[in-house]
Amino acid sequence: IFDRGDLIPLDWQDPVVWGAGNTNKDAILRRLAPNWDPDDPAFIPELRSAPYFEDHPDALVGTNHKLSLKPEFVNTPPMIPFGSTPIGASMDDFIDWYDKWKLVADTPDGDPTFGCRTVNLLILTDGDETCGGAPCTAATQLYDGRNVRTFVVGFGLAAVAGNTLDCIAKNGGTDAIDFDGDGVIDMTGPIYPGNEDELVDALKQIIVAIQPRPRSFAAAAVPQASANTPDKTYLTSFIPILDEPVWPGRVDAYLRPVPLTEDIVTLPDGTQQTILVPDPSKGCQPDDESQCHLWE
């Protein structure tokens, strides 16, 4: 959809491209809904094409036989459907953009959190592929070669088995997603909303699927003592990431016995409880090595 790199920016607040007082986020909103009013949070986006055009007079013919964009939309042209559905070509454009963007983002001067981010592509369409493209192949290239998942929303379409949208989701890694880790598959491929409310719900589902999961905490484990090495207690925490074989995490190592301190936690029912937790303020004392708190 977006064929300009500055429309999927490293910094939402970068005003360089659009001038002072404008952000990349504002620019995207103006293209998606040119009638967007930042001072009116209740505005309704105009998704039709007609309001953005006017009759174009032709001196040779003498009639208004074609349309042109209204002057106020020339610098930020709206996203306009033209009848065909080039899903495959659009995905190929995204692959080309992503490969070039990664060369910039995954550097010390690019996005410092690039390695921690997941990348996802959302296909929102009102039709199947009509231009001879290969969206299923593109979805495979994104998922297998670049670890990019492709979510598919077919607005106003019938869920017909075997259509292109099905294979895009399957090849793109979104045909079997468990949102909450309860063992029940919550997303089984494309979502087919039939109205505005269902479309909003579909987008909410995808946002939930994209968001990283909360941290987990593993119980303490005491390793076997080795020669000339004091026993330690290891506390580990991880950030589970959906469909990733390796989770980022950390290991805190304490010499035994573990120095403890009291902490107050709030339980789900609103009551408070005092618990004992490792005390990171304890340092190594020359006369009492067992009170040493280590980080490894």
TrEMBL record:
UniProt region (Disordered), positions on chain: 276-296
InterPro entries: vWFA_dom_sf
Protein name: VWFA domain-containing protein
Originating organism: marine sediment metagenome
